[in-house]
Design goal:
Elements lengths: L1 H19 L10 E3 L8 E3 L1 H9 L3 H18 L6 E7 L3 E6 L1 H5 L1 H8 L13 E5 L11 H19 L3 E8 L4 H17 L14 H14 L8 H26 L6 E4 H6 L2 H11 L3 E4 L2 E4 L10 E4 L8 H13 L4 E6 L6 H11 L7 E5 L3 E5 L2 E2 L12 H8 L1 H9 L7 E4 H5 L6 H19 L15 H11 L1 H11 L3 H20 L7 H25 L8
Parallel strand pairs: 5-6, 5-11, 6-7, 11-12, 13-15
Antiparallel strand pairs: 1-2, 2-4, 3-4, 8-9, 9-10, 13-14
Helix pairs in contact: 1-3, 2-3, 5-21, 6-15, 6-19, 7-8, 7-9, 8-9, 11-12, 12-13, 14-15, 17-20, 17-21, 18-20, 18-21, 19-20, 20-21
This protein binds one RNA strand of 77 nucleotides through α2, β9, β10, α17 and α19.
Length: 554
RNA sequence: GCGCCCGUAGCUCAAUUGGAUAGAGCAUCUGACUACGGAUCAGAAGGUUACAAGUUCGACUCUUGUCGGGCGCACCA
């Protein structure tokens, strides 16, 4: 409906522009469903945007547009759905549309079913979303959990809005941390055989290290004892890495998160990609040597200091493989790169963008979302956590306590960059305080309602019978689903969808309290069944995109 | 010191990226089930959007300054 109105306005503005003697360069303006019934059904702020460009008063422009719309409506039948146009306020254009034009939207929803909400918004855009990317040196924490929930929902939403999306996990399997992991496991392995061992400084102390060592001992027996320490640690490292990745995959699968691709850092070295990337930067003149180290001149791209890529010891810094990794993203044909990082990586954003620009890419192609931390509460009291002592509040423990649906919903219900307070007691409550149940209840209630009707949802009905304010409210809210998804995807903010669904559920519950669906009036019953089914489809599709189950009963 | 982020109802957060009277949930108070699920609905109360100037048809949103809070400023990963 918004699109139909936009189409008309665009044409009219172009036509009128000739008479204004000034060109209208920019045709962006908003059309929204009016919040206040006094503002009609739809409202456009086009007159303001145009007036500025042609140096006229907004109100006068609005009047001209109104007159043109009315004139055109007399000529063209397909504009008959517009019943009234008003100029209000300082120059808003308010459109009133016929009831049957609104109610016919229901047909579209039922026809599209699972595909309802899809759009062409992202057509032709190839996007890679990288998230979680935790080192496989320990179990996933709730911080990873939030990234996983947000990243996965974002991927689903981007897909639903037409993007070609790859979900990717960057596996830091080449660095010092993995060696430490190997050494830690090796030490515990030796202890299993009551051999003397030196636990590495900064090693991993968690009890899961001992579990891995036990598993290693069970599999390899005492075989590794005869190897050289270097080789044994290498073996322990590989074994530990694989074991941890299996656990991580399992933790993620338990909240319905999966990846299309695991990108291994070590493949960068196998293909010599890091050296080649540095070579490329050197050719373009962005590298220089100083104090025996190799520096990247990131200040040329807005960084506040230059960064070392290769230390005087000959080792790469963390930045070097990271640049190579991002180069690979572009080389693989992605034109939009989205990264979800923790707040501890905040300062890396500028230098990474600088590097990508140095390689000839636009900084707008990289979008780094800093996912703020989650603080756990239990009945109003903060749950302390510490990674240093090897005690984690793991994602797995959280999921077991509150369930996958509440976990996913709570993780995404705030803006990405807003720190999240996660109340365990609230997430577990099966009451009206818990927003997850509000959404699921609406879905279950509709399913139950359709069961009660004792018939299949009709394929067609006289939808014009849906004419009460509650009917029309519900229809309009349902019809805003595609727009909500586009907003969520262009802002990279899945919470938008959660917010929309809450609104939809509320509108449905309000409708339900006022309107009876199954009555003796067969025609009205048929139309209302189609309406509630459309609401159910929308809720179901939305919940799916959030990775939350859609119960038929609760 | 420099840079970035934040400050909205008692609490947790929104506000369609500059739009009309700043909205939701929780908490508080008052109501609503003799046909479809009360895990619901209707209503009340709650605000100088930290403060002060500026930009314009229009500012929670943009600019500048002040106050208050957080984070970052490694040849660490």
């Amino acid at each position: 409906m918004e699109q139909k109105i936009r189409h008309i306005l665009d044409a009219i503005i172009q036509e009128l522009a000739a008479g204004w003697g000034a060109p209208v360069q920019d045709l962006t303006y908003d059309i929204q469903v009016s919040k206040d019934p006094a503002h009609g059904d739809y409202a456009a702020n086009a007159a303001f945007k145009v007036a500025r460009q042609v140096r006229k008063a907004p109100k006068a422009v609005a009047e001209e547009i109104k007159t043109a719309v009315l004139a055109r409506r007399r000529e063209k039948k397909e504009l008959a759905f517009i019943t009234r146009v008003e100029v209000a306020g300082a120059g808003f254009l308010n459109f009133y549309v016929s009831q049957d034009s609104v109610s016919s939207l229901i047909d579209v929803v039922l026809r599209q079913d699972e595909r309802y909400g899809e759009s062409e918004f992202g057509a032709g855009k190839k996007v890679v979303v990288e998230f979680v990317s935790a080192n496989p040196t320990g179990p996933l924490t709730i911080a990873h959990g939030r990234q996983a929930a947000i990243g996965d929902s974002l991927v689903r939403i981007l897909r639903h809005t037409g993007h070609d999306v790859t979900a990717e996990y960057y596996l830091n399997d080449a660095g010092r941390q993995m060696n430490l992991l190997g050494a830690s496991v090796w030490a515990r392995y030796l202890e299993e055989f009551e051999m003397e061992s030196v636990f590495p400084e900064d090693g991993y102390h968690g009890s899961y290290i001992r579990d891995i060592a036990k598993a290693l001992a069970a599999q390899r027996k005492d075989e590794l004892l005869s190897r050289s320490p270097e080789e044994a640690i290498q073996q322990a490292r590989l074994f530990a890495g694989e074991t941890m990745m299996e656990l991580i995959r399992k933790d993620l699968a338990a909240i319905d998160v999966s990846f299309d691709h695991y990108f291994s850092e070590s493949t960068l070295y196998e293909k010599d990609a890091v050296e080649k990337t540095l070579e490329l930067l050197r050719e373009k003149g962005h590298l220089y040597e100083q104090d025996g180290a190799l520096w990247f001149r990131s200040t040329a791209f807005g960084d506040d200091k230059d960064r070392v890529v290769k230390k005087s010891t000959g080792e790469y810094t963390y930045l070097a493989p990271d640049i190579a990794y991002h180069l690979s993203k572009f080389q693989r044909g992605f034109d939009q790169v989205i990264n979800l990082w923790g707040p501890d990586h905040h300062s890396y954003v500028t230098r990474l963008k600088a590097a990508c620009q140095a390689l000839g890419y636009n900084e707008k192609q990289i979008h780094v979302l800093i996912v703020q931390l989650t603080t756990l509460y239990r009945g109003g009291v903060q749950v302390r956590m510490s990674t240093r002592a090897g005690e984690f509040v793991t994602l797995e423990a959280l999921r077991q306590e509150v369930g996958p649906d509440a976990a996913r919903f709570f993780f995404i219900m705030r803006r990405v960059e807003t720190p999240l307070d996660f109340d365990l007691e609230l997430a577990k409550k099966k009451s009206d305080e818990n927003p997850v149940y509000y959404l699921q209840y609406a879905h279950a209630r509709i399913a139950s309602l359709i069961r009660f009707s004792g018939r299949a949802v009709p394929k067609s009905a006289d939808l014009a019978r849906l004419n009460t304010p509650q009917d029309l409210d519900l229809i309009k809210t349902i019809s805003e689903f595609p727009k909500a998804l586009v907003q969520a995807s262009q802002m990279s903010e899945p919470y938008r969808l959660a917010d929309y669904l809450r609104e939809l559920a509320a509108t449905f519950h309000r409708f339900y309290a006022h309107a009876r669906v199954v009555t003796e009036d067969e025609a009205l019953t048929a139309a209302r069944l189609m309406l509630v089914e459309a609401a159910r489809i929308t809720l179901r599709n939305g919940l799916r995109l959030l990775g939350i189950s859609q119960p038929e009963s609760m």
